[in-house]
């Protein structure tokens, strides 16, 4: 068993009471009876409402116990995916089988998994070497994932071929939120939303049409023959620099089959939203780092640039306001709209240069 540490991407901070922490340690002790290990101490690492994570100190070193906070079918897909990756040499934490030689133990409605504990430090996006390694590591992850086939009886989770549906759903939601905004005439956020939303919707609709007229459908068909696993939540919270000076990728609970550029969009576009100016050099640096391991064709880059055009950031801010009912300042919506405007100009230039 490897003496490694699994870095955990933490939820919003939740401070446990001593009684709650004691109950979680007791729960872990019960669960660990399903593994042939000699437990010396149990440490609660993450104890919020989502995934529960413990550091289990054993006579052979620390290991990680995790409660998967996902529906069982989705959990089985990701657990088996991680086991496939680890056993084929990918730098993801290996899964330690229980005393029935199974990858997980079911206790109540939840699945519990024990992993190797990976020792290391988090990456920093502001460090160029770290950023290069993060992007290169993402490409390696996509390459490692090729060949994964879920065991018989485990449902396949994929987003391949469904992007247009996601666009349509979000566009409809943003239209519906106009009604909610109209009911708040004294709310500056809602009044700005009403003033700007039609132009955002126009960009979104044009992006949908461009996607449908691009290489997207052909690429999806090609991928279906040998699909790629996308992490879906890749970034500094779910990567770390191990003692071997290599990148380790963790928290694979949300993996699904999709075009690899989905992960690229999810990491690059939010990172670019840190300034009032689009940093073309930074954008190209990240893309070049990824392509050192997994080059993209001109047609694939076109699909990526088109997807990046969709107003995801504006949508996320509006959803926070009208679905989660979060109190937001009007400046937050102003910044989101400004970023979408800057992003649209920059990506259209990249699309023109890519032809």
How many domains make up the 3D coordinates? 2
Largest sheet: 6 strands, antiparallel
Helix content percent band: 40-55%
CATH 4th-level superfamily of the largest domain: Aminoglycoside phosphotransferase (APH), C-terminal lobe
Computed over alpha carbons, the radius of gyration is 22 Å
**Total DSSP E strands:** 11
Content of β-strand = 5-15%
Low-confidence runs of at least 5 consecutive residues: 1-12
Looking at the overall shape, the CATH architecture of the largest domain is Alpha-Beta Complex
Write down the overall geometry: globular
List the helices and strands in order: HEEEHEEEEHHHHEEEEHHHHH
Q: Helix- and strand-based class?
A: alpha+beta
CATH topology of the largest domain: Aminoglycoside 3'-phosphotransferase, Chain: A, domain 2
Average pLDDT level: 93
Number of helical stretches of at least 4 residues = 11
Distance between the termini: 52 Å
CATH class of the largest domain: Alpha Beta
């Amino acid at each position: 068993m490897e003496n490694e540490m699994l870095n955990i991407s933490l939820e919003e901070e939740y401070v446990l009471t001593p009684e709650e922490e004691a109950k979680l340690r007791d729960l872990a002790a019960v669960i660990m009876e399903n593994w042939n290990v000699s437990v010396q101490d149990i440490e609660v690492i993450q104890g919020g409402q989502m995934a529960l994570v413990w550091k289990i100190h054993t006579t052979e070193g620390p290991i990680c116990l995790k409660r998967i906070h996902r529906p069982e079918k989705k959990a089985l897909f990701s657990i088996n995916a991680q086991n496939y990756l680890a056993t084929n040499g990918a730098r993801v934490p290996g899964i330690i089988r229980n005393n029935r030689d199974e990858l997980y133990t079911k206790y109540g409605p939840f699945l519990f998994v024990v992993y190797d504990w990976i020792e290391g430090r988090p990456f920093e996006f502001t460090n160029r070497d770290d950023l290069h390694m993060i992007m290169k590591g993402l490409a390696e992850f996509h390459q490692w994932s090729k060949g994964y086939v879920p065991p018989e009886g485990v449902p396949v989770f994929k987003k391949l071929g469904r992007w247009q549906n996601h666009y349509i759903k979000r566009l409809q939601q943003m239209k519906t939120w106009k009604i909610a905004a109209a009911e708040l005439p004294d709310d500056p956020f809602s009044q700005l939303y009403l003033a700007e939303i039609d132009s955002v919707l126009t960009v979104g609709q044009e992006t949908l049409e461009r996607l449908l007229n691009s290489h997207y459908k052909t690429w999806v068909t090609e991928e279906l023959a040998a699909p790629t696993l996308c992490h879906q939540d890749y970034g500094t919270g779910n990567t770390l620099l191990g003692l071997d000076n290599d990148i380790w990728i963790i928290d694979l609970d949300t993996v699904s089959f999709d075009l690899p550029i989905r992960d690229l969009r999810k990491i690059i576009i939010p990172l670019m939203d840190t300034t009032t100016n689009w940093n073309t050099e930074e954008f190209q640096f990240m893309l070049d780092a990824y392509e050192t391991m997994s080059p993209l064709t001109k047609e694939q880059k076109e699909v990526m640039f088109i997807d990046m055009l969709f107003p995801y950031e504006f949508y996320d801010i509006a959803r926070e306001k009208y679905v989660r009912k979060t109190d937001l300042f009007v400046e937050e919506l102003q910044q989101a709209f400004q970023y979408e405007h800057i992003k649209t100009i920059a990506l259209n230039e990249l699309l023109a240069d890519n032809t």
